[in-house]
Specification:
The complex is a heterodimer of chains A (about 300) and B (about 100).
Chain A (H helix, E strand, L loop, with lengths): L1 H13 L7 H22 L11 E2 L5 E6 L2 E6 L2 E2 L9 E2 L2 H12 L4 E2 L5 H11 L6 H9 L14 H21 L17 H12 L3 H14 L2 H8 L5 H8 L1 H10 L3 H24 L12
Chain B lengths: L8 H4 L2 H15 L10 H12 L9 H41 L1
Helix pairs in contact in B: 2-4
Classes of the chains: A alpha+beta (about 300), B mainly alpha (about 100).
Chain lengths: ~300, ~100
């Protein structure tokens, strides 16, 4: 009875005549509704590739071509392109070789999450969030208030270890930027004076847009601006920086033991991400000149 | 006892050791038909090392920068390879445990 009332009201709305073949009536009844439903579902667009299976290696050789400051990576005869369709043009030959090496390292399946340098190059060329260099530096500086090196533990043993490992780098950082940043305890961030913040901002803005994106990637990996800048200035290695950012975790796992495919995975991921960021910064910053003696 | 990490490894590790590490990592990524000596990455590395081998300065910044870059590159290649291996190993372990369970 309820169904017949609904149907009759719908028939009144859509001006459908009664009688005849019910199947035809139903088709006439549902077409406007179905049309509306199709319009709504069409707004939900799935990404182009939403497949759980990784793409297989479809190329045999990976080569680098170009000169004069623009290098391209070729997969067999195809130029490597960014997700937005732009040709991947890299300003540095060493970086182009490193990107090619990432693609060459894929034996069977292509795993994009392992190709950090390629991803960074895509981000710089495509600029999907339409950010300027100033925006990227501002994002990087937001991590300074909650820098890993500025938060100390209350337990004595860990606090001593943190002081021993982190204080020399903090002292170097304070000397370099003429600051007096002190570590803090508790939930609230460290107090960074505005002149110091602006000095660090000017330092980061002195790099080009490629290196600045490398800085942001490194800071996001370690959650520390101080460690990233120290590594960029070649005061510590990438391994040491990754170790220092995970100091508390290393301390706890040394006491309680580690889960191999969780802690090791995390350690290798952080090291890989940060060393990729550091490579990206150095390739885009390093300049070499040679002068030969007169014979 | 917390294992202390080696500090300033780029400064203490001989440059030739870093070069060997880099060559090992590049050799792992080559396909069976590829030759290491024809690899552009190998040629670039050897060219940079030879270029910075001879200097009349006792403290050469360019040489130190190249050594640091080589060490960072070796770290990246090794960490990426180990990450991929650990990830596939952990996937196999979970797949095996699920098969036993069902």
């Amino acid at each position: 009875m309820f169904t017949s009332r609904v149907l009759s009201s719908l028939q009144d709305v859509f001006h459908i005549e009664q009688g005849g073949n019910s199947h035809h009536n139903m088709r006439g009844l549902w077409w406007p509704v179905a049309h509306q439903l199709l319009k709504q579902t069409a707004r939900v667009t799935l990404p182009r590739r939403f497949l759980p299976e990784a793409r297989r290696r479809f190329y045999k050789n990976v080569t680098v071509a170009g000169n004069g400051g623009i290098y391209e990576v070729n997969l067999d005869l195809h130029k490597l392109k960014t997700p937005k369709g732009h040709t991947l043009q890299i300003p540095n030959y060493g970086l182009a070789l490193a990107v090619a090496q990432e693609w060459a390292a894929s034996k069977d399946k292509i795993v994009p999450s392992l190709m950090h340098l390629t991803g960074l190059s895509y981000t710089v060329i495509d600029n999907p969030n339409h950010e300027t260099k100033w925006d990227t530096v501002h994002k990087t500086l937001e991590y300074l208030d909650t820098d890993t090196l500025l938060f100390r533990e209350e337990s004595e043993e860990l606090n001593t270890l943190q002081a021993k490992e982190w204080d020399p780098i903090l002292a170097w950082f304070n000397q370099k930027f003429d600051a007096d940043i002190k570590p803090c305890a508790g939930l609230f961030g460290a107090d960074i004076p505005d002149p110091v913040r602006e000095t660090i901002r000017r330092y980061l803005l002195s790099y080009d847009v490629w290196a600045v994106n490398g800085f942001l990637y490194g800071v996001e990996a370690l959650k520390s601006v101080i460690l990233t800048i120290a590594a960029a200035e070649r005061k510590i290695t990438a391994e040491k920086a990754a170790f220092l950012s995970r100091l508390e975790l290393e301390y706890q796992t040394s006491h309680w033991g580690s889960v191999e495919w969780a802690h090791d995975l995390d350690k290798q991921e952080v090291t890989a991400r940060f060393s990729a960021a550091l490579l990206f910064i150095h390739f885009n910053t390093w300049q070499a000149t040679t002068k030969h003696k007169a014979k | 006892m917390l294992r202390h990490h080696i500090t300033d490894m780029a400064a203490t590790t001989p440059k030739i050791q870093t070069l060997r590490c880099l060559i090992r990592e590049i050799r792992r990524t080559l396909l069976p038909h590829e030759n290491l000596r024809h690899s552009p990455a190998f040629e670039y590395m050897m060219k940079e090392y030879r270029h910075n081998a001879v200097t009349d300065q006792q403290c050469c910044r360019q040489q130190e920068e190249m050594a640091y870059l080589a060490h960072t590159c070796a770290t990246y290649l090794e960490a990426s390879r180990r990450w991929g291996q650990t990830l596939s190993f952990s996937h196999n372990i979970f797949r095996y445990n699920i098969q036993i369970f069902f």
